[in-house]
Amino acid sequence: MIKAGIVGITGYVGEELARILVQHHQVEIKTITSKSYAEQKYNDIYNNFNGIFQATCEEEDLEKMANDLDVIFLALPHGIASKKINKNILDKVKVIDLGADYRLNDKDIYEQWYQTEHCSSELLGEAVYGLSEIKREDIKHSRLVANPGCYTTCSILSLYPLLKEDLISRNSIIIDAKSGVSGAGRALNIGTHYTECNESLKAYKLLSHRHTPEIEQELSIAAGEDISLVFTPHLIPMNRGLLTTSYAILNQDISYNDILDVYKKYYEKEFFVRIAKEGIHPETRWVKGSNFFDVGFTIDERTGRIIIIGCIDNLIKGAAGQAVQNMNIMFELDEKLGISHVPIFPA
Amino acid sequence: MIKAGIVGITGYVGEELARILVQHHQVEIKTITSKSYAEQKYNDIYNNFNGIFQATCEEEDLEKMANDLDVIFLALPHGIASKKINKNILDKVKVIDLGADYRLNDKDIYEQWYQTEHCSSELLGEAVYGLSEIKREDIKHSRLVANPGCYTTCSILSLYPLLKEDLISRNSIIIDAKSGVSGAGRALNIGTHYTECNESLKAYKLLSHRHTPEIEQELSIAAGEDISLVFTPHLIPMNRGLLTTSYAILNQDISYNDILDVYKKYYEKEFFVRIAKEGIHPETRWVKGSNFFDVGFTIDERTGRIIIIGCIDNLIKGAAGQAVQNMNIMFELDEKLGISHVPIFPA
Amino acid sequence: MIKAGIVGITGYVGEELARILVQHHQVEIKTITSKSYAEQKYNDIYNNFNGIFQATCEEEDLEKMANDLDVIFLALPHGIASKKINKNILDKVKVIDLGADYRLNDKDIYEQWYQTEHCSSELLGEAVYGLSEIKREDIKHSRLVANPGCYTTCSILSLYPLLKEDLISRNSIIIDAKSGVSGAGRALNIGTHYTECNESLKAYKLLSHRHTPEIEQELSIAAGEDISLVFTPHLIPMNRGLLTTSYAILNQDISYNDILDVYKKYYEKEFFVRIAKEGIHPETRWVKGSNFFDVGFTIDERTGRIIIIGCIDNLIKGAAGQAVQNMNIMFELDEKLGISHVPIFPA
Amino acid sequence: MIKAGIVGITGYVGEELARILVQHHQVEIKTITSKSYAEQKYNDIYNNFNGIFQATCEEEDLEKMANDLDVIFLALPHGIASKKINKNILDKVKVIDLGADYRLNDKDIYEQWYQTEHCSSELLGEAVYGLSEIKREDIKHSRLVANPGCYTTCSILSLYPLLKEDLISRNSIIIDAKSGVSGAGRALNIGTHYTECNESLKAYKLLSHRHTPEIEQELSIAAGEDISLVFTPHLIPMNRGLLTTSYAILNQDISYNDILDVYKKYYEKEFFVRIAKEGIHPETRWVKGSNFFDVGFTIDERTGRIIIIGCIDNLIKGAAGQAVQNMNIMFELDEKLGISHVPIFPA
To answer: H or E stretch including B72?
Structure first.
C-alpha cells in the first residue's frame, strides 16, 4: 500500500483527490492537512464522506510527512509550494504538485505571470510536467511532478499531434476555451456567487489567463520552436466540464483520414484518450466523472482551417484524476488503477 | 461471474444499471436489449461508454435470456413486464424488475392506478418488494424482486422506523417530495424540454402520482394498519437527486435523542443509510452518484410534529443502485459490491 | 412626478426596485445610497443599467432625503431601519421599508426572532403591514409601510381566504416553501457559492426561519385567534421564483367550487392575483419578471385536506414590485403603474 | 394604433413577440394564428398571459389578414413564408418575417443551405435585411423586412465597423458563438431534452449552421468583397442569452482608442448598442430581457489580433425585439417604443 498525504484537502481539487484515493485499492491516505480547517473532521466539511472517511484535518508538517509517507499531493494556491518543497524533502518522498509552481520551466516567466517570487527555482529543471500521455517516461523516474492545469491539459492534448507532425501553422492557433464553475475553486467570490453566474455567460481574463504560458511552453516544445497563441477562457453555468474549441490553419491540403491517422499514432493506445467518430463532436457530459479526454476534429476546406474540439472533466483529467494517473506511473502500478470510472450520465 | 442481462438498457435507469454493472467485479453483462435501438452499438447511443463497453443492443428474447443468464434486470415502462414474466422463466433465472408491475400486492389497486391490466397477477404473491434494508431476508430467497420507485424508497426509509415503533399518528403523514428531472426519464415531453423546466419549479400529479399506493402499502405493513397519506411531488431544475420532507404528528412527548435511538435501532448497521447529526439536514449533493440514503429529523415542540428530511440519488438508490444491491443480496455477495462509490461533489 | 430615494440600492432588492422605478412614468429617482459602493456610478456595479441610468451612489443622509423627497425606500438588512426612522422623518416623507424591522407588531417577538434590539418600537403601532391586496385601505393613509417578506407574501395570500372564512383547522397548517437563490441576497456565503447550491436541493432553517412569525401574525389576525404553523423553506437551484405548497385540514366537507367561490370573493377583482383553473397548478415560470401571485388548490377527499399551491417572483411581488404597488396606493396612482409587466418566458 | 397579426405565435419567437406587442402602446394585436393550436386560447398554452391577453389562436388566412391589418409578423420555420408571401399581399400590408426565407439575396445559396425550393424568389430583391442599426433607411421604406437570425445579429454588429473601415484581414475571421437553449426553439428534440443538455456543453453544426451564409453575405457587403469565415456555434446550458467571441487579424498596428473611435463612429448614437469600457467584457446577464447589443474588444499585440465580444438576448435583439424595432422604423414611431426595457437581473 502506498502511503499518501494530501496538503490542502479542503479545496475542490483536494476533495476530488480524496474521493479518488479513498477508493484506490493500492493507496492509504495517512495524512490530510488544511490551513483553514485544521482539527476538523473532514466529513463534517464534506458530508459526502460521511460513513466512509473519518480522517481529521491536521496542521501541515511537511518534514514529518516526508518521513512517514510515500507520496505527497499538494493542492495549494500558487506561490506556496515553491516555498515548501526542497531537495531534502524530495530525497525522502515523491511529490505531485497540483498547483502552478513547477509547471513553467522558466523562473522569469513564472514570476511575470504570477507576480510572486519563485522560492525554489533550482527544482524547475528536475520537475516533470505531468501530462501523463506525453511525459510518461519522464514521470516514471521523477520525484517531483508538476500536474498540469485544466485548460492546459485539454488544449495541449488537442493540438500536440498536429504540432509534432508539423501540420498546422504555428502562428495561427486560437483556443476558445469554456469551463464549468468548479474550475474557479471554492473561495468565495462575487463572480462565482450563484445568482451572478447562473444563466449567464462571459469571457474572462482575456489575454491574461495564467494557463497561457503553460500551453505555449509545452506546444513550443512539441513544435520545436516558439509559439504564441490566443487563449480565451469563458465561464459556463455548470458545475463541471471543460471544452476547448481550437482553430488553426493547415499547412497543407490534407484529408480527414490522414489527420485521423496522426491522432491515432499518438493516442490509439492511450486508454484515457478517445477519438470521436467523424462527424461526432465531444460533449462534456460524456466525460463527466471520468479521467477521459475526448477529442474530435473537422476540416474547413473553404478557409483551410482545422477545428479541434476537446473535452475533459476539469476536476479529474484536469486535476485530481491526472495526478493519480501520474502517481500510478511513478509507482509502476496499472495506470488506470482507481481512475477507470465510466463517465456518469445524466449528472 | 454472474451472467446478467438488461432489458430496456437505453432509458436512464437502464443506462445507470449498465454503468454500475460494467464496473462490478462479479458481473458480466452478457445481453442487452432495446426496442428502439436494436442492432445499434450501445456506445453510439451513450458516448460515455466509448472505449469501455462495446455491446450491441439486441431484440429481446426472454426465453433465450432465461436459459443463458443468471439474472435479468427489466428497466421497462409499466405494463410490459407483467406480460413477459412467468413461472417458467423464474424457474430458470432470477428477475429484478425496476418497473412498477410487481410492486403492488393487490392486482386491483395496480389496475386502478396504472389503468392497464395486470397479466401475471399470480406472481404478485411471490414477488418481493425490493427495499433492501427492510426486506433483506425475503430478497435473499427470492426469484422475482420488484425494485421500488425512487420517491418510494426515500419516503418509506424516512418513515419506517417511526411507524414500526408507533411514534406518529397514522393519519397525519404528509410527504412533500422533490425530484430532479432525470426521474422523468428520457422520453421526449414538453414538460421536460429544457426551456420549459429549467429555472422553474412546479408541483405535479397532485394526489395522483403512482408512487402513492406503493408508499401506502409498505408503510401500512410497517404500521400494522391501513395508512392514507398525502404525497405531493415537485419537479426541481437539476439532473439528479431526490429529497422528501415528511411531516407527521408525534403520538407522544418524546425527545430528539429517543427518536434518534429508534432510527439507530433500524439503521445503525446499514452501510447505505446515514443518519445526519442533530441540526444538520441532508442535501442531495452529498448523495449524488452514490447508493446512500441520508436522513435527518427535527421536532417541532410548538405543533407536536416531527419533520423528516430524506435524500437519495434517484437513479442509484432510487433505481439502479438498489437493484444491484438486491442482486448482491440474492447472490450472497458482499452487499456493497459495485455500489460503494463515494458521492461525487461538486457535480 | 414623485421624487423617490432608495437606501441600499446595491442589494438585489434595491436593484430590482431601481429597475422598476427607472421605468415608472410617475417617479423620478433622485437619490440612491449604498454603504459599500458610495461614490461609485451605479451602472459600473450593475452593467444592465449602462446607457439608461447614470446616477452615482451616495452616502446616506436620511435627514436631507426626508426634506427633498416624497418617498424613501429602504432595502436594508434587519436592525438598521429601526435605528434610522423616527416620527420627525415620517412627518416629512413617506417611508416604505423592504426590510423586517416594522413587520412584526410586537417588539418582543421581533427581538426574540431577530436577536437585536428594536430602536423605534414606538412606530410599530403606526406601521402598516404592506400586503397590498389585504391592507390596501390602511396603506392608502400610511406614512410607514412595512413591506412583507417573500415567503410571507406567498404564504399569506395562499391561506388568507380560507382562514377568513373559517374553512380550515387552525392547527393543521403546514407550509412547505421553495425559493430560488436570489432570495438569499448578494452577500457572499458558502451556501450560495455556485458549485455548492447548483444541482442540489436542501431544506434550511427548519423551525427557525424569520418569516415564520410574520406569517403567523397575519394569519392569526385573519383567523381571529392565534395560529401556530409549520414553515419549512427549501433552496432551489434557480435564480428567481418562489412556490409554497400549503397543507391544511378542511373543517367541513366542502366542494372544489365552493372553495373557488371563496377565493374569488377575495381575489376576483385583484389584478395581481390569478386563480388557476381546476387541475392546473401554478409554476414559477409563469410569474417570473412580474408582480403576479398565482394560486391554485386541490382537495384530497381521502384525507380531508386541502393543498394550496402559490407562486410569485420573489424579487417582484415578494419585494420590489409589491413595494411599488404600495407606493402607487399611497400616492393614489393607478395601482398597476410600472408593475404590469407580462411575465417573461422562457427566462 | 397599428393593427398587427402574428403568424406562428406558439413558438418561442412568436411568444416573445406577443409579450412585447401586448405591452406596446401603439399596437393592437388583432389576429394570432397557430397551426398546432388553432381554436385554443393563447393563455391556456402560455399561462404567463393569464389575466392579460385573452386572444384565441386562429387558422391562418393571410388574405384576410392582409386586408384587415397594418403589419404581419411571420414566426415560422424556414420554407413556409416563401410559399405564402407575394406582391399582392405586400400591396396591402407590411410584412416582417422572422424566419430565414428572405434573408439571403441569392436564391441558389438559400436553396443550397436550406435544401428546399424558394417559392417567391422574385421578392428577394425587394426584401430588406432587417438589421436595424445598419439598414435603417432601407427598412423605413420597405414592405418586406427579413429579420436577421440571432447569431447573425450579434456577429454582424460585432464586426461591421471593422470591415467597413478595412481594419481587419478578410480571411482571418473566426466567430466562436455560444447560445442559450431557447435559440433551439420549442419543438421537442433529444438534444434539448433537459437532462441531455443541462450541465453539459457542446459545439454543434460545425461548418454547417445556416446562419453562416447570412453573416458572410452582410459582412461581404460591408467589406466590399467576398468574405469566407469560420462560424462555430455552441449550446450553453441556460435559457437565454447569446455571446460571440470573434477573432480577426488587424491590418495595421492600431491602438485601442483608435478602434474605439471606429466603434463610436458607427454606434455612438445607437440607443441599443452599448460599447463596454476598456477592460470590461460584455456578459449575457447584462442584456437579458432587453433589446441591447453589448460589445467590447481587446487587442492582442503579441499575435496582432483583435478579439471582439458581443452579447444579446437571443429572443429579443436576436428575434422579436429587433422585429418590433423594425416595425417602429417602418411606421415612423420612436424606435425605442415598447422595447426599451432595462435588462432584468438576476434572472
So the answer is: strand B71-74
Q: Confidence band (pLDDT; 50, 70, 90) for D63? A: very high
Average pLDDT over residues B13-25: 98
Q: Specify if B341 maps to a domain.
A: no
For B202-233, b where at least 16 C-beta lie within 10 A, e where not — what string?
Answer: bbeebbebbbbbbbbbbbbbbbeeebebbbbb
> Contact A344/B19, CB-based, under 8 Å?
yes
Interface test with C, best of A36, A179, A194, A201 (most C CBs within 10 A): A194
Q: What is the ipTM of this complex?
A: 0.97
Q: Is D175 exposed, middle or buried (0-12, 13-18, 19+ CB in 10 A)?
A: buried
Q: Is B347 inside a domain boundary?
A: no
> What is the C-alpha to C-alpha distance for residues B178 and B33, in angstroms, rounded to an integer?
31
The contacts of residue D257 (CB under 8 Å, 6+ apart) are: none
Query: Is the CB of C199 inside 8 Å of chain D's CB atoms?
Result: yes
Domain hosting residue A51, numbered range: 2-148+316-330
- Output the pLDDT for position D110: 97
For the stretch A308-323, pLDDT in tens is 999 999 999 999 999 9
Residue in B195, B236, B239, B344 to test binding to D, most D beta-carbons within 10 Å:
B195
Residue D128: CB atoms within 10 Å: 22
**Does B307 lie in the same domain as B187?**
yes
Are residues D192 and D217 both part of a single domain? yes
Residue B24 touches partner A, C-beta closer than 8 Å = no
Q: List the CATH number of the domain containing C241.
A: 3.30.360.10
Q: What pLDDT score does B317 carry?
A: 98
Indicate yes or no: CB of B239 within 8 angstroms of CB of D199. Answer: yes
Q: Per the confidence metrics, is the pTM higher than 0.90? A: yes
| Residues C71, C177 within the same domain | no
Specify the CATH number for the domain of residue D135. Answer: 3.40.50.720
* Residue D208 and residue D233 in contact, taking contact as beta carbons nearer than 8 Å: no
- What residues in C contact D340, CB-CB < 8 Å? 23
Mean pLDDT across the stretch B91-106? 98
pLDDT of D278-318, one tens digit each?
999 999 999 999 999 999 999 999 999 999 999 999 999 99
Question: Per the CB < 8 Å rule, is D12 touching B181?
Answer: no
C184 falls within a domain: yes
Q: Are A56 and A40 within 8 A, CB to CB?
A: yes
